[in-house]
């Protein structure tokens, strides 16, 4: 059987109860300073989430998107153009740019890594199998990779440039948010220079 203890009623303010200054802070969300209530700024992550409405891929999602896209495009290339390596290379470029644009900021480094892997994943449908068998397919893949290295390097470079641009923008935005947050916290006479 369970016993309940009762406390005798306490007179005066309870321990842990907010004092009037804390109660005003908790209710208003800010600290009162000579006039209007100063609001605490939203965290940088919340502002970033509100700004972005584009799809965001994780590192794994980035690899899956890029690899699956290249395999499907290679199959379409085989059906419509007879496995043209030039068409495959041209289709590879927008996939690289989209992958670099859609990867979330925390996983920016993965985009230039998964792009060359996806290029190789999509090659089997258009690679010449050299007469059949696993050895012929492997030789066809190596030959296709060697002959289409320009497209591979071009797509990887495009992904690197997009990721570098996004990273620079992200760092500048965080610095600006940090400066804005410091300016809100410091009193008007002590603004940073």
What is this entry, summarized?
With 193 residues, the protein is mainly alpha-helical. The chain has helices at 20-28, 44-51, 59-81, 85-102, 110-122, 133-147, 149-185; strands at residues 30-32, 37-39.
Structural notes for this entry:
This protein has 193 residues and is mostly helical. It has a domain at 137-186. It contains 7 helices and 2 strands; from the N terminus they run H-E-E-H-H-H-H-H-H. It has helices at 20-28, 44-51, 59-81, 85-102, 110-122, 133-147, 149-185, and strands at 30-32, 37-39. The protein has a two-stranded antiparallel sheet. Strand 1 and strand 2 (37-39) form a beta hairpin. Helix 4 runs parallel beside helix 7 and helix 5 runs antiparallel to helix 7. The protein is elongated. The protein starts with 19 loop residues before the first helix and ends in an 8-residue tail after the last helix. Residues 1-52 are annotated as: Disordered. It holds the Pfam family DUF6542. The chain crosses the membrane at residues 57-74, 80-101, 108-127, 139-165. Residues 1-14 have a biased composition (Basic residues). This is DUF6542 domain-containing protein.
Write the layout of secondary structure elements.
Blueprint lengths: L19 H9 L1 E3 L4 E3 L4 H8 L7 H23 L3 H18 L7 H13 L10 H15 L1 H37 L8
Helix pairs in contact: 3-4, 3-5, 4-5, 4-7, 5-7
């Amino acid at each position: 059987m369970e016993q309940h203890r009762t406390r005798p009623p306490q007179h005066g303010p309870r321990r842990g109860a907010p004092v009037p200054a804390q109660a005003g802070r908790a209710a208003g969300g800010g600290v009162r300073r000579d006039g209007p209530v100063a609001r605490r700024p939203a965290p940088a992550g919340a502002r970033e989430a509100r700004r972005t409405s584009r799809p965001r891929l994780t590192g794994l999602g980035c690899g899956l998107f890029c690899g699956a896209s290249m395999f499907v495009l290679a199959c379409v290339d085989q059906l419509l153009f007879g496995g043209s390596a030039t068409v495959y290379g041209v289709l590879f470029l927008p996939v690289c740019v989209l992958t670099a644009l859609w990867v979330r900021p925390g996983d920016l480094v993965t985009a230039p890594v998964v792009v060359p892997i996806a290029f190789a994943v999509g090659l089997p449908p258009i690679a010449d199998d050299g007469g059949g068998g696993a050895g012929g397919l492997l030789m066809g893949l190596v030959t296709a990779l060697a002959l289409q290295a320009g497209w591979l390097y071009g797509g990887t470079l495009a992904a690197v440039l997009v990721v570098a641009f996004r990273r620079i923008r992200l760092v500048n935005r965080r610095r600006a948010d940090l400066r804005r947050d410091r300016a809100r916290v410091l009193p008007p006479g002590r603004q940073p220079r």
